[in-house]
Design brief:
The chain has seven helices and six strands; from the N terminus they run βααβααβαβαβαβ. With 183 residues, it is α/β, with parallel strands linked by helices. The longest helix has 15 residues.
Protein backbone atom coordinates (compact mmCIF):
# COMPACT_ATOMS: atom_id res chain seq x y z
CA UNK A 1 0.00 0.00 0.00
CA UNK A 2 2.75 2.42 -0.94
CA UNK A 3 2.02 3.77 -4.43
CA UNK A 4 3.08 7.25 -5.47
CA UNK A 5 0.66 9.96 -4.28
CA UNK A 6 -2.45 9.89 -6.38
CA UNK A 7 -0.80 8.08 -9.29
CA UNK A 8 -0.91 4.27 -9.41
CA UNK A 9 1.45 2.72 -11.93
CA UNK A 10 2.23 6.14 -13.35
CA UNK A 11 -1.27 6.62 -14.79
CA UNK A 12 -2.13 10.25 -14.24
CA UNK A 13 -5.83 10.98 -13.81
CA UNK A 14 -7.53 14.37 -13.48
CA UNK A 15 -8.67 15.39 -10.02
CA UNK A 16 -12.40 15.27 -9.36
CA UNK A 17 -14.07 18.68 -9.62
CA UNK A 18 -13.64 20.72 -6.44
CA UNK A 19 -10.86 18.48 -5.09
CA UNK A 20 -7.41 20.05 -4.64
CA UNK A 21 -5.60 16.79 -3.82
CA UNK A 22 -6.57 13.13 -3.81
CA UNK A 23 -4.66 10.40 -1.97
CA UNK A 24 -5.28 6.71 -1.44
CA UNK A 25 -3.30 3.76 -0.14
CA UNK A 26 -3.90 0.91 -2.56
CA UNK A 27 -5.77 -0.34 -5.57
CA UNK A 28 -9.22 -1.75 -4.85
CA UNK A 29 -8.31 -5.40 -5.33
CA UNK A 30 -7.14 -8.48 -3.45
CA UNK A 31 -6.83 -8.23 0.33
CA UNK A 32 -7.70 -4.52 0.37
CA UNK A 33 -10.98 -5.20 -1.44
CA UNK A 34 -11.73 -8.06 0.97
CA UNK A 35 -10.96 -5.91 4.01
CA UNK A 36 -13.15 -3.04 2.81
CA UNK A 37 -16.03 -5.39 1.98
CA UNK A 38 -15.70 -6.98 5.43
CA UNK A 39 -15.77 -3.55 7.08
CA UNK A 40 -18.62 -2.22 4.96
CA UNK A 41 -20.89 -5.24 4.51
CA UNK A 42 -19.99 -7.83 7.15
CA UNK A 43 -19.74 -5.68 10.26
CA UNK A 44 -15.99 -6.10 10.79
CA UNK A 45 -15.59 -2.71 12.50
CA UNK A 46 -12.24 -3.71 14.01
CA UNK A 47 -10.73 -3.29 10.51
CA UNK A 48 -11.35 0.46 10.69
CA UNK A 49 -8.40 0.98 13.04
CA UNK A 50 -5.63 -0.45 10.81
CA UNK A 51 -7.21 0.95 7.64
CA UNK A 52 -7.59 4.36 9.28
CA UNK A 53 -3.98 4.22 10.40
CA UNK A 54 -2.92 3.39 6.83
CA UNK A 55 -4.69 6.43 5.38
CA UNK A 56 -3.25 8.57 8.17
CA UNK A 57 0.27 7.44 7.26
CA UNK A 58 -0.48 8.19 3.62
CA UNK A 59 -1.74 11.68 4.39
CA UNK A 60 1.18 12.39 6.74
CA UNK A 61 3.56 11.47 3.92
CA UNK A 62 1.83 13.01 0.90
CA UNK A 63 -0.82 15.46 2.09
CA UNK A 64 -0.10 19.11 1.37
CA UNK A 65 -2.64 20.55 3.79
CA UNK A 66 -5.50 19.67 6.04
CA UNK A 67 -7.11 21.13 9.14
CA UNK A 68 -10.23 19.02 9.48
CA UNK A 69 -11.32 15.50 8.50
CA UNK A 70 -14.89 15.13 7.25
CA UNK A 71 -16.21 11.60 6.60
CA UNK A 72 -18.48 10.95 3.61
CA UNK A 73 -21.85 10.33 5.26
CA UNK A 74 -24.15 7.44 4.48
CA UNK A 75 -27.90 8.04 4.31
CA UNK A 76 -29.74 7.81 7.67
CA UNK A 77 -31.73 4.78 6.43
CA UNK A 78 -28.53 2.92 5.59
CA UNK A 79 -27.05 3.95 8.94
CA UNK A 80 -30.06 2.49 10.76
CA UNK A 81 -29.76 -0.73 8.76
CA UNK A 82 -25.96 -1.12 9.09
CA UNK A 83 -25.59 0.42 12.55
CA UNK A 84 -22.45 2.39 11.69
CA UNK A 85 -20.83 4.49 8.98
CA UNK A 86 -17.53 3.01 7.80
CA UNK A 87 -16.21 6.43 6.69
CA UNK A 88 -16.79 7.82 10.19
CA UNK A 89 -14.83 4.92 11.71
CA UNK A 90 -11.99 5.42 9.21
CA UNK A 91 -11.92 9.18 9.81
CA UNK A 92 -11.82 8.76 13.60
CA UNK A 93 -8.92 6.31 13.36
CA UNK A 94 -7.05 8.56 10.92
CA UNK A 95 -7.76 11.66 13.00
CA UNK A 96 -6.35 10.01 16.12
CA UNK A 97 -3.08 9.27 14.30
CA UNK A 98 -2.86 12.65 12.56
CA UNK A 99 -3.95 14.74 15.52
CA UNK A 100 -6.74 16.27 13.40
CA UNK A 101 -10.33 16.82 14.45
CA UNK A 102 -13.09 14.81 12.79
CA UNK A 103 -16.24 16.74 11.97
CA UNK A 104 -19.54 15.19 10.86
CA UNK A 105 -20.11 18.37 8.86
CA UNK A 106 -22.03 16.76 6.00
CA UNK A 107 -25.30 14.91 5.69
CA UNK A 108 -26.58 12.81 2.81
CA UNK A 109 -29.94 14.27 1.84
CA UNK A 110 -30.87 11.69 -0.80
CA UNK A 111 -30.92 7.91 -0.47
CA UNK A 112 -28.79 7.34 -3.55
CA UNK A 113 -28.23 4.02 -5.27
CA UNK A 114 -25.03 2.26 -4.30
CA UNK A 115 -22.29 3.68 -6.52
CA UNK A 116 -20.80 0.25 -7.29
CA UNK A 117 -24.04 -0.64 -9.08
CA UNK A 118 -23.72 2.25 -11.54
CA UNK A 119 -21.58 2.89 -14.57
CA UNK A 120 -19.17 5.81 -14.71
CA UNK A 121 -21.73 8.17 -16.30
CA UNK A 122 -24.42 7.38 -13.74
CA UNK A 123 -22.25 8.01 -10.69
CA UNK A 124 -22.05 11.80 -10.99
CA UNK A 125 -25.80 12.11 -11.57
CA UNK A 126 -26.45 9.81 -8.63
CA UNK A 127 -24.63 11.95 -6.03
CA UNK A 128 -24.69 15.36 -7.73
CA UNK A 129 -26.58 17.29 -5.01
CA UNK A 130 -26.97 14.44 -2.51
CA UNK A 131 -24.92 16.17 0.20
CA UNK A 132 -25.54 19.24 2.32
CA UNK A 133 -23.77 20.98 5.17
CA UNK A 134 -25.05 19.88 8.58
CA UNK A 135 -26.70 22.66 10.52
CA UNK A 136 -24.24 24.48 12.76
CA UNK A 137 -21.05 23.41 10.97
CA UNK A 138 -20.45 26.45 8.72
CA UNK A 139 -18.08 28.15 11.19
CA UNK A 140 -16.05 24.97 11.67
CA UNK A 141 -15.55 24.64 7.90
CA UNK A 142 -15.03 28.31 6.92
CA UNK A 143 -11.39 29.13 6.25
CA UNK A 144 -10.24 25.52 6.75
CA UNK A 145 -8.57 22.99 4.48
CA UNK A 146 -11.04 20.09 4.65
CA UNK A 147 -10.01 16.50 3.95
CA UNK A 148 -12.93 14.28 2.97
CA UNK A 149 -12.47 10.67 4.12
CA UNK A 150 -14.03 7.76 2.23
CA UNK A 151 -13.37 4.06 1.83
CA UNK A 152 -13.19 3.74 -1.98
CA UNK A 153 -12.82 6.25 -4.81
CA UNK A 154 -13.70 5.31 -8.38
CA UNK A 155 -14.69 8.33 -10.47
CA UNK A 156 -14.52 10.85 -7.65
CA UNK A 157 -18.21 11.78 -8.06
CA UNK A 158 -18.92 11.31 -4.35
CA UNK A 159 -15.95 13.48 -3.38
CA UNK A 160 -17.07 16.19 -5.81
CA UNK A 161 -20.61 16.01 -4.43
CA UNK A 162 -19.24 16.45 -0.90
CA UNK A 163 -16.92 19.28 -1.94
CA UNK A 164 -19.75 21.51 -3.18
CA UNK A 165 -21.40 22.32 0.19
CA UNK A 166 -18.00 22.54 1.92
CA UNK A 167 -16.70 25.08 -0.59
CA UNK A 168 -20.01 26.96 -0.51
CA UNK A 169 -19.60 27.19 3.29
CA UNK A 170 -16.21 28.84 2.82
CA UNK A 171 -13.70 25.99 3.05
CA UNK A 172 -10.34 27.20 1.77
CA UNK A 173 -9.70 23.93 -0.06
CA UNK A 174 -11.06 20.40 -0.13
CA UNK A 175 -9.02 17.24 -0.56
CA UNK A 176 -9.93 13.56 -0.68
CA UNK A 177 -8.41 10.66 1.23
CA UNK A 178 -9.42 7.03 0.78
CA UNK A 179 -8.23 3.56 1.54
CA UNK A 180 -8.48 2.42 -2.08
CA UNK A 181 -8.95 3.62 -5.63
CA UNK A 182 -10.72 1.62 -8.29
CA UNK A 183 -10.06 2.38 -11.94
Amino acid sequence: MDELPGVPIGLVAPLPEGIAQLEWCASFSGPVREALHALKYRGERRLAAPLGEAIARRWARAGIGGDLLVPVPIHPERLRFRGYDQAVLLARAAGAHLGLPVAPALRRTVATAAQHRLGREGRAANVGRAFALESGWANAVRGRWVVIVDDIVTTGATLSGCAVPLLEAGATAVAGLAVARER
